[in-house]
């Protein structure tokens, strides 16, 4: 799952007193941002094994600190605390923390067994990456439904062009992930690309959400 992770961010951003859309986009991929950062010094690890799943060759064999449920809950609490200190809004902090936690449960749907509860076996994952005819429509439905919800629940005086730019960038990023060339071997270019993609998407989301307000119904 890639852009499907941003669905909870869009839903939470449509609530009063929520954190900004850019902040919530960071929350949605916070554990993957940390994973990319921990790949660089080798604290966590991955490798490429062609054919390990039908949709991608990633063997995510060592990620106990970011993709265990316990680790995700700890990072969610830290992220929520940061949002609280920045905004002094309890609702914003709780919403952001919940978006961080949502990442693990969405991953659980698509990953082969490589997630853990507390960094040790058993390893968990329902494996929809081996069933692209289910995983791909599910991802589109998640992000599409959340995008429509956010669009209807918010408004901007200048209309929606910024939001359509964000939608186009999300679609391009997902198409590249699904259909673009795959790295043959792991290198530092992998976490660098991940961090760049998350920064670009979160920055665009911050820009797209900056002029939007909760619509009066």
Distance N to C terminus: 33 Å
Average per-residue pLDDT, rounded, comes to 96
Q: What would you report as the Rg, rounded to the nearest angstrom?
A: 17 Å
Structural class: mainly alpha
Number of helices: 8
Total domain modules: 1
Instruction: Give the overall shape, derived from the CA principal axes.
Output: globular
Indicate the multimeric state.
single chain
Strand content: 5-15%
The largest β sheet comes out as: 2 strands, antiparallel
The residue fraction in helices comes out at 55-70%
User: Unreliable runs, pLDDT <50, ≥5 residues?
Assistant: none
List keywords for this structure.
8 helices, two-stranded antiparallel sheet, two-stranded antiparallel ribbon, 217 residues, mainly alpha, globular
